[in-house]
């Protein structure tokens, strides 16, 4: 059995979700003075490799500590989508099913290649990682429900497409205009304003979050680590997602591991 870490490193240098507080860390004791090194951290839950529980969008939804362990470990698949992914691309059920066998209830990991633009990735690029990452096609929502997927994950900052997020709708509106630049790029990618409005209608704001959490279908964001290992691509294997037992938590940092039989 060989283990592969699918998690990104996390510290104060990492990109954080727009409008959320960053990761902060400092020493509160040092060995030279106190005989021990001890650190204090302050952070939101939504940066680094983390698992979103339904409570993130559902008032009385399941919290991190309530997730059944069997949903977090078991049969799964890593799907290599890199050949069809580019700035603002969408991934579809057809792309996924054309590459590897998907079974009901799988832990589903989607590899877009975007982890290389994360803070500690091979081509670190904050704007590209946050502003122009690939995202879910609307057809993915019902497909995930029909396939009884409880946990799925992506190597980008959000499962939702930037045009269904503040990134493409109002990020920096009236100041830096990030959303206007993302919108202009989307119109070039998808063939004009009408096409963008049809694919990303107003009511689909944060679609995968709003539509899937009520069905207890939750997701991991910011995957990375060894996700690009050639031997993991488009194959079935065992996946484990290990958040800390956060009572009442709407999300939690997690370590995600692929287990591959020799």
Protein architecture, described:
The chain is α/β, with parallel strands linked by helices and 262 residues long. The chain is 22% helix and 24% strand. The strands form three sheets. Strands 4-10-9-7-5-11-12 form a seven-stranded mixed beta barrel. A hairpin with a 7-residue loop joins strand 11 and strand 12. Helix 7 packs across helix 8. The longest helix is centred in the C-terminal third of the chain and has 13 residues. The protein starts with a strand and ends with a strand.
Q: How would you summarize the topology of this molecule?
A:
Layout: E1 2-5, E2 24-29, H1 31-34, E3 38-42, E4 50-52, H2 69-72, E5 73-80, E6 90-91, H3 93-97, E7 107-111, H4 126-131, E8 135-136, H5 139-146, E9 151-154, H6 166-169, H7 178-190, H8 193-199, H9 207-212, E10 218-221, E11 235-243, E12 251-260
Parallel strand pairs: 5-7, 6-8, 7-9, 9-10
Antiparallel strand pairs: 1-12, 2-3, 4-10, 4-12, 5-11, 11-12
């Amino acid at each position: 059995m060989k283990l592969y870490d699918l998690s990104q490193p996390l510290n104060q240098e990492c990109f954080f979700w727009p409008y959320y507080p960053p990761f902060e860390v400092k020493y509160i004791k040092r060995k030279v003075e106190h005989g021990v090194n001890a650190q204090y951290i302050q952070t939101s839950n939504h940066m680094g490799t983390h698992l979103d529980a339904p409570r993130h969008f559902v008032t009385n939804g399941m919290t991190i500590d309530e997730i059944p362990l069997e949903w977090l470990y078991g049969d799964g698949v890593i799907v290599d989508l890199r050949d069809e992914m580019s700035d603002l691309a969408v991934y579809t059920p057809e792309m996924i099913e054309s590459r590897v066998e998907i079974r009901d209830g799988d832990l589903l990991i989607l590899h877009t290649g975007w982890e290389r633009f994360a803070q500690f990735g091979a081509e670190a690029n904050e704007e590209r990682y946050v502003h122009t990452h690939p995202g879910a096609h609307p057809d993915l929502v019902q497909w995930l429900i029909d396939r009884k997927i409880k946990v799925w994950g992506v190597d980008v900052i959000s499962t939702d497409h930037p045009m269904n997020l503040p990134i493409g709708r109002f990020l920096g509106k009236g100041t830096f205009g990030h959303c206007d630049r993302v919108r202009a790029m989307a119109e070039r990618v998808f063939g004009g304003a009408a096409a963008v409005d049809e694919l990303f209608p107003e009511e689909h704001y944060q679609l995968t979050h709003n539509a899937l959490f009520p069905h207890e279908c939750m997701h991991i964001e910011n995957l990375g680590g060894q996700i690009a290992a050639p031997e993991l691509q488009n194959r079935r294997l065992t996946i484990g997602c290990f958040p800390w037992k956060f009572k009442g938590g709407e999300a939690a940092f997690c370590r995600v591991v692929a287990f591959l039989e020799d």
